[in-house]
Amino acid sequence: MKAYERFIKYTTFDTTSSAANENETPSSASQRVFAEYLLKELRDLGVDNSYIDDKSFVYAAIPATKGKENKPKIGFIAHLDTVEDVSGKDIKANIVKNYDGKDIVLNKEKNIIFSAKDFSNLNKYIGSDLIVTDGTTLLGADDKAGIAEIMTMIETIMKDKTIEHGEIKIAFTPDEEIGSGIDYFNVEDFNADFAYTIDGGELGEIEYENFNAASCNVIVNGVNVHPGYAKNKMKNAILLGVEFNNMLPQNERPEHTENYEGFYHLSSISGNEEKAKLEYIIRDHDKSKFENKKEFIKNVCEFLNKKYGEKTFEIELKDSYYNMKEKILPHMHLIENAKKAFNECGIKERIVPIRGGTDGARLSFRNLPCPNLSTGGENAHSRFEYISVQSLEKMTEVLLKIIDIYSK
Question: Are 16 and 81 in contact (CB under 8 A)?
Answer without folding.
Answer: yes
